[in-house]
Amino acid sequence: MALHDFVQEMNKKTTRNYVQRVTDDDKALCIPVARQWGQDYWDGERKYGYGGYRYDGRWRPLAERLARHYGLKAGDRILDVGCGKAHLLYEFTQAVPGVEVAGLDISAYAAANAKEEVRSRVKVGNAAELPWPDDSFDFVFSLATLHNLDIFDVMKAVREIERVGRGAKKYIMVESWRNEREKVNLLYWQITCESFHSVDSWEWIYRQAGYSGDWGFIYFE
Q1: Could you give the C-alpha distances from 63 to 15, 35, 55, 72, in angstroms and in order?
Q2: Predicted local distance difference test score (pLDDT) of residue 12
Q3: 51: left (phi > 0), else alpha (psi -120 to 50), else beta?
Q4: Cross-strand bridge partners of residue 101
Q5: What are the residue boundaries of the structural domains of the chain, listed by start?
Q6: 8-218 architecture in CATH?
Q7: How far is CA 184 from CA 56, 152, 204, in A?
Q8: How far is CA 23 from CA 9, 35, 44, 130, 189, in A?
Q9: How far from 217 is each of 53, 114, 152, 176, CA to CA, in Å?
């Protein structure tokens, strides 16, 4: 297991006003809407989520970077746990022609509106109970998803990722913090996070779950 930063630079490109996030709208009212994971979350007003999640090619460099790091090749099977609209899964098919991709997301809306080229490969379901047999995939990853689960489902989801992956080619990225400023910014910004843990706490969770893969974080600096 090792810590790798594949996503933080992308996260830093987004400009955020953390205080405005909690003064413009009543977050207590926005959170239940966001956690329905429907149209409001993906393509509705910004206060409920993304404010419009459309394909723009931004995920191609990440797919290429992950493919290089994990030595992915034609014929490999790749699973994205929490794939959303499957933009990154599509990019894997372009970065490594011949790979077989699969995705799972809690959102029926995201699955129905996934990138057309890979839409048939997306299933609706919960990360805590993956609908695939043991050792089904050569690479399993989950980006910005597991922190949306309660701790008991986090442990289940990590164990499920371990179960369906072959070997140690696995990667989990979640929101976390290294200091009090990042912790406060995360609390201000988030609308779907259920598991608020420091870096050390997340790493403890992975060890307790018997996870053999790599991990990373995004921070709200």
Answers
A1: 23, 27, 14, 10
A2: 76
A3: left
A4: 78
A5: 8-218
A6: 3-Layer(aba) Sandwich (3.40)
A7: 30, 24, 22
A8: 27, 20, 19, 38, 11
A9: 21, 25, 20, 6
